[in-house]
Amino acid sequence: MRSALLIVLGLVIGILGSVFTFSALHQRTPLPKAVMTVMAYHSSELHHAVKAGQCDAAAIATNLARLQSAALDIPGAFKGVEQPFLRASDKLQDAVGSAVTAAPTSCAALATTLQPVDDACDSCHKRFR
Ligand code: HEC
Fold first, then answer.
1. Ligand 1 close to Cβ of residue 126 (< 6 A)
2. Which of 31, 34, 95, 97 is in the most buried spot, having the most CB atoms within 10 Å?
3. Per residue in 32-55, pLDDT tens?
4. Which of 33, 36, 93 gets mutated to test ligand 1 (max ligand atoms within 8 A of its CB)?
C-alpha cells in the first residue's frame, strides 16, 4: 500500500516537473508579461480615477510617468521582434509622451489624453497578441 502511494506520488511529481519545464522553455523570461502587467496597472489606476471623478494632478503625473517608463521597455522585453511590432511600440510611446507633456489636471482632460494611449495598446494587441 505504502509503495503504491509512493509510486503515484512519484508520477505526479514527474508530470508536474515536465509541465513546469515545458512552460519555462516556452516562455524564456517573464519580462514581456511583466512589462504589460505594469502598464496595465498604471493604465487602470488612471481609468479608475476618471470613473471615480477623482483626478489628482500629482497622482496622474506619477501614473503617466510609470506608464511611460514601462512602455520604453517593450522593445527590450520582446527581443527579435519585427519592424511592424516596433512601430506599434513607437506609436504607444508617442501617445504616452503626448499625455505626459499635456499633463492633464482634470478628469475630462485625462480621459481625452488616455484615448490615443488605449488605441495604441489595442492596435498592437489586435495584430500581435
Ligand atoms: C507593440 C505591441 C504592444 C503594445 C503597444 C501593447 N501591448 Fe500589451 N501585449 C502585447 C503582446 C505581444 C502581448 C502578449 C505577451 C505574452 O503573452 O507573452 C501583450 C499582452 C498584454 C497583457 C496580458 C499580459 C499577461 O499576463 O498575459 C496585458 C494586460 C497588456 N498586454 C496590456 C497592455 C496595455 C495596458 C498596453 C498599453 C498601455 C499595451 N499592452 C500595449 C503587445 C503590446
1. no
2. 95
3. 999 999 999 999 999 999 999 999
4. 36
